[in-house]
């Protein structure tokens, strides 16, 4: 637990230092400069084998070799478990829409000196629904804060979220989207993997846990989102509006993709938990 850190470079510097080797602690930043008490930020959640094992619901005392064998054995019998939609959840404790929306209230660090701006979405999942099949995809794509009601979204070519977005754009429609922050680390892990096309990451998570993931219908888009997420931001990705985005210092140690015009999310609704 670290108190009083400055989200302007200091926070990102500490995250990088502790990310240099596996088995370092995760970092929970509290009482950050410029933000009221009750706002916190968790980083490096998956930088230890025991924490990865905990997220995948396998014994946390395995060696690396034992872990790989355990996981391979589980994959042989794995079956997805459909998500369970519920009527309410902690993420709905606070609801804001229209003129109330201001995404700059949430801690979005300047992680690295040459980043193109502040990034709220690093460990997030971006949720979209295929307009043809109804398939729900949850992928991890970076989210930059432009202003109180505008986010930038960068999705590499070929990624499932981009394929879905292009389908809406081909119809001349904005793409509905919900972005979840502060959820089960398993969802972040799955959001960064190549889960099969038309396979729902929420259902995969349920199969791994042995318990259906509880989701609610987000109030603006109706998209299923984790009921226990800390924050969910909803909006639309219009086909004809772009904004400078990037670069961003990736975990691999380089600045990715430079500064380019990228699509935006026009934010319509925000729900979030107390504290």
Strand element count = 18
SSE class: alpha+beta
Gross morphology is globular
Q: Number of helical segments?
A: 6
Task: State which percent range the strand residues make up.
Answer: 25-35%
Helix content bin: 10-25%
Tell me about the biggest sheet?
A: 10 strands, antiparallel
Write up this protein.
It is globular, with a radius of gyration of 18 Å. With 275 residues, it is of the alpha+beta class. It starts with a strand and ends with a strand. It is built from six helices and 18 strands. Strands 5, 6, 7, 8, 9, 10, 11, 14, 15 and 18 form a ten-stranded antiparallel beta sheet that branches. A three-stranded mixed beta sheet has the order 1-2-3, with helices on one face. Helix 5 crosses helix 6.
Write the layout of secondary structure elements.
Elements: E1 2-3, H1 10-19, E2 27-30, E3 40-43, H2 49-55, H3 64-76, E4 84-85, E5 94-97, E6 119-121, E7 125-129, E8 136-139, E9 142-147, E10 150-154, H4 160-170, E11 175-181, H5 185-191, H6 201-209, E12 214-217, E13 224-226, E14 231-237, E15 242-245, E16 248-249, E17 255-256, E18 260-272
Parallel strand pairs: 1-2, 4-12
Antiparallel strand pairs: 2-3, 5-18, 6-9, 7-8, 7-11, 9-10, 10-18, 11-14, 12-13, 14-18, 15-18, 16-17
Helix pairs in contact: 5-6
